[in-house]
């Protein structure tokens, strides 16, 4: 293993340039370790975001050598060959605040627009609901529930790049978990929310979100589920 790791990092906002750093290469260093070392030892003005360092908070995502990834759980040795440089950019499809930090407001506003929040109704049940793990609804909800809101899927989605209004895979995945939540009382409004031109019908199923999600969630399938639910409701209305 070579002693030195060359790291090219985007500096600026929408305009800017890459800046090259060189730091010691270590056996188990993560990409987030690299950024932290550069900020502490080389340039304190380098901006980036992280919180948990253990794959829980979703705040450390960046584009690493062309691919969106969570950086706290990405080892350098797994993404660049010995002697090759590491290239770090902010997530695509987000406004860049500075360097590697992006603005997440629009991303989460779209969760809200897709009704990606639990609606207990006017008179919530007083007791805990019993939702058997073996039911199809529970399994569909469980398949998407571990989303950490990292934005990797949103960064990977071409439709988001083409259409700034498209809700994107994370918001629609969240809506799908709620469509399958038997306690929720806003199903009709949620299907209304996701059936418009910015909702599930805009997805062209090319799977980038599912390919890159670090939590192994498949938003593509969640969105397909929404399409089926919207169609079923439309057909029922014709009978
Ligand atoms: S499957 Fe749909 S949501 Fe996922 S990346 Fe492709 S277009 Fe975007
Ligand atoms: S679906 Fe996956 S990639 Fe998208 S925000 Fe959630 S955890 Fe991140
Ligand atoms: S720092 Fe929390 S997921 Fe990476």
CATH homologous superfamily of the largest domain - what is it?
A: Alpha-helical ferredoxin
The termini sit apart by 68 Å
CA gyration radius, whole angstroms: 20 Å
Beta-strand segment tally? 7
Instruction: Say what oligomer this is.
Output: single chain
Number of helices: 10
The tally of domains stands at: 2
Note the beta-strand portion.
5-15%
Range of helix content: 25-40%
Uncertain runs are none
CATH uppermost class of the largest domain:
Mainly Alpha
What is the CATH architecture term of the largest domain?
Orthogonal Bundle
Mean pLDDT: 96
Ions, cofactors and other ligands present here are: iron/sulfur cluster, FE2/S2 (inorganic) cluster
How many strands, which pairing sense, and closed or not: the largest β-sheet? Answer: 5 strands, mixed
Shape: elongated
Tell me the strand order in the biggest sheet.
2-1-5-3-4
CATH topology of the largest domain: Fumarate Reductase Iron-sulfur Protein, Chain B, domain 2
């Amino acid at each position: 293993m070579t002693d030195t790791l060359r790291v090219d990092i985007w500096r600026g906002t929408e305009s800017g340039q890459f800046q090259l750093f060189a730091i010691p290469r270590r056996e188990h260093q993560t990409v987030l370790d690299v950024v932290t070392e550069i900020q502490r030892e080389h340039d304190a003005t380098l901006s980036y975001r992280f919180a948990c360092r253990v794959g829980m908070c979703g705040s450390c995502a960046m584009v690493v050598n062309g691919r969106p990834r969570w950086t706290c759980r990405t080892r350098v040795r797994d993404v660049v060959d010995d002697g090759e440089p590491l290239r770090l950019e902010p997530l695509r499809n987000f406004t860049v605040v500075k360097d590697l930090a992006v603005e997440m407001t629009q991303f989460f506003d779209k969760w809200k627009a897709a009704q990606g929040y639990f609606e207990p109704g006017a008179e919530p049940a007083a007791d805990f609901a019993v939702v058997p793990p073996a039911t199809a609804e529970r399994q569909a909800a469980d398949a998407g529930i571990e989303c950490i809101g990292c934005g990797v899927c949103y960064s990977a989605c071409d439709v988001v790049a083409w259409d700034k209004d498209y809700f994107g895979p994370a918001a629609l995945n969240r809506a799908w978990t709620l469509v399958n939540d038997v306690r929720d009382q806003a199903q009709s409004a949620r299907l209304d929310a996701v059936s418009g031109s910015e909702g599930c019908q805009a997805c062209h199923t090319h799977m980038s979100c599912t390919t890159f999600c670090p939590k192994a969630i498949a938003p593509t399938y969640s969105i397909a589920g929404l399409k089926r639910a919207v169609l079923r409701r439309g057909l029922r209305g014709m009978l």
